[in-house]
Specification:
about 180 residues; elongated; 3 domains; 3-stranded antiparallel β-sheet; alpha+beta; 8 helices
């Protein structure tokens, strides 16, 4: 990466001289001079490592508490980046979540929506059986895909669900410019 002084010299010379002349004078490759001139805008505040940190912090925060916002992520990162930048990065992430509902109640009846829990009399589970996955949801750029799952799933069925339903949803909704990131 070139220093600010070298970049400024390239900008000053490029108005009057050729890229090859500047390359000989500054002992920098002429393609570097050309790219420096064509990328003359403001330097990015986030590099790839910082973008990955945003993703990692967001995912860690969501594991602890699903109500996460860009201000929490910014405070945790301690970067001089605007909230809008963090919001844009979070918006490009895709999230999946699974919820298992217990059929017989050993989860303290949190999965049941009943006004009077005391009157609900259910048998206790004797083994590890008795839980089902009701639905799966995929969220990407304010669009979501909700699918109903009919039976208990093992890893093969889960992979089949991803391939047949979730990935086609993503392929159809990801912008054309972003597709090479995923496929």
């Amino acid at each position: 990466m070139l220093s600010a002084e070298v970049r400024q010299k390239i900008f000053d010379y490029s108005r009057e001289k050729s890229y090859r002349w500047i390359a000989k004078k500054s002992k920098i490759a002429h393609n570097t001079n050309r790219k420096t001139r064509s990328n003359a805008g403001r330097q990015r505040k986030l590099n790839k490592a910082d973008e990955l940190k945003i993703k990692r912090v967001t995912m860690d925060r969501i594991q602890k508490n699903p109500l996460v916002n860009s201000r929490i992520v910014k405070n945790e990162l301690k970067h001089n980046v605007s909230l809008r930048t963090i919001q844009r990065k979070i918006k490009t992430m895709d999230f999946t979540d699974e919820k298992k509902f217990s059929v017989d109640g050993p989860d303290n009846l949190r999965s049941y929506q009943k006004n009077d829990v005391a009157t609900l009399n259910l048998p206790k589970r004797k083994g590890k059986d008795g839980s089902i996955m009701v639905f799966g949801c995929m969220v990407y750029l304010d669009k979501f895909y909700l699918t109903k799952i009919s039976s208990r799933m093992n890893s093969d069925e889960y992979i089949k669900l991803l391939v047949t339903e979730i990935f086609p949803f993503l392929k159809n909704n990801i912008k054309a410019g972003e597709r090479e990131k995923y496929w």
